[in-house]
Amino acid sequence: MTKPTSTYGKASHAHPLSEREREILRLVVKSFVRTAGPVGSRFLAKTFPIGLSPASIRNTMSDLEDMGYLDHPYTSAGRVPTELGYRVFVDELMESVELSESEKQLLRRELEALMGDTEEMMRESSRLLGRLSSLLAVVLSPRLSTGVLDRLEVVPLSSKRAMIVISVRGGLLRTIVVELDVELRRPQLDRVVSVLNERLAGLTLAEIRKTYASRLRDLEDDETGIVRLVLNENAQLFSEQPESRRISLSGTQNIIAQPEFQDPDQLREVVKLLEDESVVVQLLEDAGEAAEDAPVIRIGRENAAEYAGRYSIVTAPYHLGETRGTIGVIGPMRMDYPRVVALVQGMAALLSRPSEDEDQPSSTP
User: Fold this and answer.
1) Can you tell me whether residue 164 is helix, strand or coil?
2) Which residues 6+ apart lie within 8 Å of 297 measured at CB?
3) Which of 52, 165, 172, 205 has the most neighbouring CB atoms within 10 Å?
4) Is the CATH code 3.30.450.40 the one for domain 101-143+244-351?
5) How far apart are the first and last CA of the chain?
6) pLDDT tens-digit map of 148-170
7) How far from 68 is each of 9, 25, 172, 323, CA to CA, in Å?
8) pTM of the model as a whole
């Protein structure tokens, strides 16, 4: 499994942690993630075979608090991790976990059945990830304009109506139904479509949008009218799709149910985030751009949006041909990071498709 990366590099801290401090911080984070309540020294002493008295653990926790890794909420005797504490845990103390064989089989079975329908596969991926993580799952399809045109097809629907199909390497599609001024004749249509593919296939949609006029100018007078339609409809055919078409969200009820968001003001912030798809898209794309092929973990105020400071976001890139999408999970900072990373990375591997050989099997978690 690829080790997750921090978008901000390793956590920097003035005081290198001793082995005892590292172990106590690790156990506090793990315990708080599981219980959602402040973690006390007596609880750690009774729960884990660490060979330390409650007094020794309490002193170590006090030192960690002084250094900014733990906090002491209200009058409770227990501690909770701070953003810095979570960052050190993620960067230095977190152990990798693997999905169970049954989970791997579930993911493969559900997604491989949808390999021919990219949009439905995105929706099902978010549903599966939301269910297995018990958090908010987001799948962001690649930017269509970055995709390389595999082929352009024209499918007659009637004598004067046709559907233009743009196929991008990796399985992405765009379709548009057009009205024609002349009746379609199959031989003429096939010749024109063949020439269009000779001139445009292998270019990104962004390149086509910028250069289509010079590439097709000498074909404007073709008898079918198809070239003229392609010229007239280029903005719709080769431009970026709306963000609402790129994003699939699932698990809203999961994040609303978290203890961190039970306060009415906090709940309003969650609803505000969920209603603003452009912010969610930006959060995932910011993290995705920072990664190569490794998962990225952003914690709290590392997220750019002003009302995303209460969340952690785990993302991983996936590839459809030459295009790159992002899959991720949004939840409270009190998140089971090892499991979420395993889920996100495993799902990204299943979604990815090679750029050259479309029949090659997808990677598996």
Assistant:
1) strand
2) 4, 5, 6, 7, 90, 312, 313, 314, 337, 341
3) 205
4) yes
5) 8
6) 999 999 888 887 888 889 888 87
7) 18, 11, 47, 41
8) 0.83
